[in-house]
Design goal:
By secondary structure, this protein is α+β, with helices and mostly antiparallel strands. Among the domains are: 131 residues, Immunoglobulin-like (Sandwich); 170 residues, Immunoglobulin-like, CATH 2.60.40. Helices cover 15% and strands 33% of the residues. The chain is built from 4 helices and 22 strands. Strands 12, 13, 14, 15, 16, 18, 19, 20 and 21 form a 9-stranded mixed β-sheet that branches. A hairpin with a 4-residue loop joins strand 6 and strand 7. Helix 2 runs antiparallel to helix 4. The N and C termini lie far apart (94 Å). The structure holds calcium ion (CA) (2 copies). The site of one calcium ion has 7 residues, from helix 2.
Length: 434
């Protein structure tokens, strides 16, 4: 009887220990799931570095992979500034992965930055844990170096707005001279735990036959973003129609422009004439789809303070250039700065100070060229504009994802295609309007 009780006791003890052992990994798993859920709830995607930490000697090269945890988002473009501690690290090179096409890769070891813009020009979705590329650093001197993302815009197919990005994860790298081997105190005896040396039975790995499927080359269907070559400047001039009579009938004839009424000069106002506004992207000899469009003009004094609210007006296409005439109100004599902004163009300042000597002076402003590509009109050129453009590409122009249809047609030929993408990509080096 006593034996039976003892044997039952043993069974319960074993069961208890087994349950306890099961509970530990389960708790860890649940806790991990909760953490992941919380992280997902806060941000759409997250950047990380591999390895996140390391110890290196001085004058040593080492690689850091830049990862983007994208989950189910199909990442269409990434625009980041990678920052690193310039006194401890030199960025020797950055090798992007073939997943994306690199638009911009500017390394500055003086400021400790890499500005990187990559886009997916293929129709193949990019999701999950994405390797953006590998940074090869060289250590310069002893200390603690940090690597992190300081600016980022990430866009995904089907998402109108840029994604929210978690950039809290950084890479921390300790640079020191190799430590001498005297760190283990000689007095310590390691004899008190001999039982831990049990070696697990050898696990024989059965070699599984890996069947490599025949390589499937995705057929280049024209449903998505076009594969275009960025390095080649499109020869836009070759597509100029020789006769204007072939243009669709819904475009007003350029001869009718002469009939557009010019605003009457106001004798109590300064009057600005802009006779030579060039709109970048519209090819010479081409008649833009929009013959007229609204303009906004900022008037600033010589201390860059705004003088009144921005003026509004209209620019008109006329004989290969754009012109505008504005009454801007009476101004005190002095030097002024004028800046013009149009939809999809960066704000541009007319060069220098413009002197006004009488309140109703007539001023002819010099020629300027406005830079196209600001699809979302925030006065910056970045991948958010690229995303807006691609969302209106060809037949997508009539879909729900296209929110800035007119702005996406950068060369004003009535369609958003690879010519518009090329214009934007060329202009992406100019990041900010004036
Ligand atoms: Ca923009
Ligand atoms: Ca176009």
């Amino acid at each position: 009887m006593q034996n039976l009780i003892n044997s039952r006791k043993n069974i319960f003890t074993v069961l208890g220990i087994a349950l306890l052992l099961l509970a530990i990994p389960l708790t860890v798993w649940i806790s991990k799931q909760q953490q992941e859920t919380r992280s997902r709830a806060t941000f759409d995607v997250a950047f990380s570095f591999n390895p996140p930490t390391a110890t290196k000697a001085v004058d040593e090269n080492f690689d850091v992979q830049i990862m983007l945890q994208a989950g189910t988002f199909d990442i269409s473009a990434v625009d980041i500034t990678l920052s690193f501690t310039p006194q401890y690290l030199e960025l020797v090179s950055f090798t992007p992965t073939a997943t994306y096409t690199v638009i911009r890769k500017d390394i500055s070891n003086a400021s400790g930055t890499l500005v990187l813009t990559v886009v997916n020009l293929t129709a193949t979705p990019v999701t999950g844990d994405i390797l953006l590329g590998t940074a090869t650093f060289k250590t310069k001197s002893t200390g603690s170096a940090q690597v992190g993302i300081t600016n980022s815009i990430v866009t995904a197919s089907g998402a109108t707005n840029a994604l929210s990005v978690d950039v809290t994860q950084t890479g921390s790298y300790f640079i020191g001279t190799p430590s001498p081997t005297n760190t283990i105190p000689p007095t310590e005896t390691i004899t008190n735990t001999p039982t831990v040396t049990e070696i697990p039975p050898t696990i024989t790995l059965t070699p599984t036959a890996i069947t490599i499927p025949p390589t499937e080359i995705p057929s280049p269907t024209a449903t998505g973003v076009p594969g275009i070559t960025i390095t080649e400047t499109p020869t836009i001039t070759s597509t100029i129609p020789t006769t204007i009579t072939n243009t669709p009938t819904n475009t007003p004839s350029p001869t009718s422009l002469a009939l557009i009424a010019t605003p009457t000069p106001d004798p109590n106002s300064a009057q600005l004439t802009m006779n030579n506004l060039k709109l970048n992207g519209i090819s010479n000899g081409k008649i833009p789809k929009k013959l007229q469009q609204s303009l906004t003009l900022d008037v600033l004094d010589n201390q860059s303070n705004a003088v009144g609210a921005p003026r509004t007006g209209t620019i008109t296409f006329n004989s290969g250039t754009h012109t505008a005439f504005l009454n801007i109100g009476a101004l005190n004599p002095g030097n002024y700065i004028f800046k013009i902004k149009l939809d999809k163009y960066l704000r541009k300042q007319f060069p220098g100070f413009i002197e006004i000597t009488s309140s109703n002076q007539q001023v002819s402003l010099p020629e300027i060229t406005l830079i196209a590509g600001d699809v979302n009109n925030d006065n910056q050129l970045n991948i958010a504009d690229y995303h807006g453009l691609v969302s209106c590409f060809l037949e997508k122009a009539n879909g729900a994802s296209c929110v800035n249809k007119d702005n996406a047609d950068l060369n004003e030929d009535g369609v958003t295609d690879e010519f518009d993408i090329n214009i934007l990509i060329r202009n992406l080096a100019i990041r900010q309007g004036e």
